[in-house]
Design brief:
The N terminus is likely disordered. The protein has an eight-stranded mixed β-barrel with strand order 13-14-16-17-18-19-20-21. It has a seven-stranded antiparallel beta sheet with strand order 4-3-2-8-7-6-5. Strands 10-9-12-11 form a four-stranded antiparallel beta sheet, with helices on one face. The protein is rod-shaped, with a radius of gyration of 47 Å. The relative contact order is 0.13. The longest helix is centred in the N-terminal third of the chain and has 57 residues. The two termini are 24 Å apart. The chain has 546 residues and is an alpha/beta fold. Helix 2 crosses helix 4 and helix 7 runs parallel beside helix 10. It is built from 15 helices and 21 strands. Helix content is 40%, strand content 22%.
């Protein structure tokens, strides 16, 4: 008889060949059935759906407000940009006129000088007058000629980098004239009152200032500026009803501060608000139903099992395998355990078939193999006679990818293949020709094979003789029949005779009493057994030494 050298990779439930389940779809739904389905969908989830509808409605209105704010912000920013560009053009024209007048070589206020000053004012688009100062008094200008009595200039509103600035100063020559003025040295220019005509038309509720960077001097005012904060610049997250914009020149000491009101849904057409509410309500209800269905699907056992198998969520225990003659520990069977996401244990005979139906049997087997070899690695490497067994499905046996995975796993862990036993259920042998080929290839690689749960299937002795087996595992229903007088117990001796005839080993499952152990020792002294009498499944750190 061959000495068992195996490992049984198992999930405590034998991996069966996945079955293809037919699905029938009916596309014809009556109005009443749709209504009924909707009521079922809402049942027990109405509060969540209502909450989702309210949240989505709020998000819809908030999004609409954000879009309205963005629209008004873009309009205000565009206006501020145009106003700043105009202010820079006016400042550039004034600076140019000051520099050109200062460069004249004509005697101040002579006819020739006045002619040159008039020419400068005529050529400038935004300068109305150019004059000369003496001791802070206006002596002459292109528009007024030589003054009979020089006009004293008031204290400037702003002094910056050699320039003196006045805003809306009046009464210099004529009390009816008020204008912005700027001076440098003994040259003074008057800004054209129409310099900002292109940008002085504001929409209702808007206001703007053209001012210095520190807001110490205001050049121009447009619209309602009573509530305008010159230093405020609006952030992207500000969704209130008032818009603010601030722009500053990179060339001149000039900034623009602008403000607009009424960025609010309440100021829009009521039909728009009603439409948004309906849209948000319907969208929220639909989303609530979708999320509810998704959560229910995610909480379902198949989905939880899928995450556990693909995410390393299984745990392993090991049931001792002992020789009946001297109770020596020769190996262990690997059993997988799983608790759902609520912490409740799920029996292997529930989750293993479920994994097979989801075509996750291969992934489950790989996780079990990987974890078992890692947890038992030291024990297996230290004792070449010790083995571990796993349950595998017929699909795994004929799968070349699983064979490659198994070979790579044993090589990486440094464990001999003879110490890894593969158990396949007798019920899995329907496609015996393909199965026999797959088993032959794996046995050639060095893995022993057991038939698990023997006696629960339909194979006969001749059929078993065709499979490349090392041992059979007698199902525990035969073991439980020992000493009961049941006719089933009479089959045990025939099984023992068969194993001796086929020259294969025997593993007895479900040994729970000494009577059962003694009967099996008498019938098959070389038998290996497992059961609560010989050791219960335990984690690797609780596994006995011998």
């Amino acid at each position: 008889m061959r000495v068992p050298r195996p490992i049984a990779v198992t999930a405590d439930r034998r991996l069966a060949t996945p079955l293809a389940l037919p699905f029938c779809w009916s596309w014809t739904l009556s109005r009443s059935s749709i209504a009924h389905s909707y009521r079922i969908a809402l049942e027990g989830r109405a509060p969540f759906v209502t909450l989702t509808a309210v949240v989505v409605l709020a998000v819809t209105l908030l999004t609409a407000q954000a879009m309205l704010v963005q629209r008004d912000r873009a309009v205000l920013d565009a206006y501020a940009d145009r106003l700043l560009s105009q202010a820079e053009a006016v400042a550039a024209a004034s600076t140019l006129a000051l520099d050109q007048a200062a460069a004249l070589v004509t005697a101040p206020c002579t006819p020739a000088d006045l002619a040159e000053l008039r020419l400068l004012a005529f050529k400038s688009r935004y300068v109305r007058d150019v004059g000369r100062l003496q001791d802070d008094r206006l002596v002459c200008s292109a528009a007024w000629g030589v003054l009979a009595a020089p006009a004293r200039m008031p204290e400037p509103d702003r002094r910056v980098r050699g320039y003196r600035l006045w805003g809306s100063v009046s009464g210099i020559v004529d009390s009816r004239v008020a204008a912005d003025m700027s001076a440098k040295g003994d040259i003074i220019v008057t800004t054209s009152p129409s310099a900002f005509d292109r940008v002085d038309q504001l929409a209702s509720g808007m206001g703007a200032l053209v001012l210095t960077r520190d807001a110490g001097h205001v050049f121009q005012r447009f619209g309602d500026v009573t509530a305008l904060d010159p230093s405020r610049h609006e952030s992207w997250s500000d969704l209130g009803s008032t818009r603010h914009s601030r722009r500053c020149s990179a060339t001149f000491d000039i900034c623009v501060a602008a403000r607009a009101r009424q960025s609010s849904l309440l100021s829009e057409s009521p039909w728009i608000v009603i439409g948004l509410c309906l849209l948000g309500g319907f969208a929220g209800s639909g989303l609530g139903l979708l999320i509810s269905a998704s959560q229910r699907n995610r909480r379902s056992l198949p989905k939880q099992l899928e995450r556990a198998i693909l995410g390393d969520g299984l745990t392993l225990v090991y049931q001792p395998l002992r020789t009946l003659s001297d109770r020596r520990l020769v190996g262990v069977e690997t059993l997988s355990r799983w608790c759902n996401e609520q912490g409740e244990p799920v029996p292997p005979d529930t989750f293993v078939p479920m994994a097979e139906r989801q075509r996750l049997g291969g992934a489950l087997a790989r996780q079990v193999v990987r974890k078992a070899l890692a947890e038992l690695g030291d024990r297996l490497r230290d004792d070449p006679t010790f083995y571990v067994s796993f349950n595998v499905s017929a699909t795994d046996v004929v799968d070349a990818a699983f064979r490659a995975y198994l070979n790579a796993a044993t090589a990486q862990s440094g464990i001999a293949r003879e110490q890894v036993v593969l158990e396949i259920t007798e019920r899995s042998t329907t496609r015996h020709s393909d199965l026999a080929d797959g088993m032959t290839r794996l046995r050639e690689d060095g893995y022993p094979f057991y038939i698990d749960d023997f006696g629960t299937g339909y194979s006969n002795f001749a059929y078993l003789a065709e499979l490349p087996l090392d041992a059979i595992k007698m199902d525990q229903r035969f073991t439980r029949a020992i000493g009961t007088g049941s006719a089933i117990s009479q089959i045990i001796e025939a099984i023992c005779v068969m194993t001796r005839t086929l020259d294969i080993g025997l593993v007895v499952e479900g040994v729970e009493t000494e009577e059962q152990a003694q009967v099996m020792v008498e019938l098959m002294p070389s038998a290996v057994a497992q059961g609560w009498l010989l050791g219960r499944p335990v984690p690797v750190d609780a596994l006995p030494v011998d």
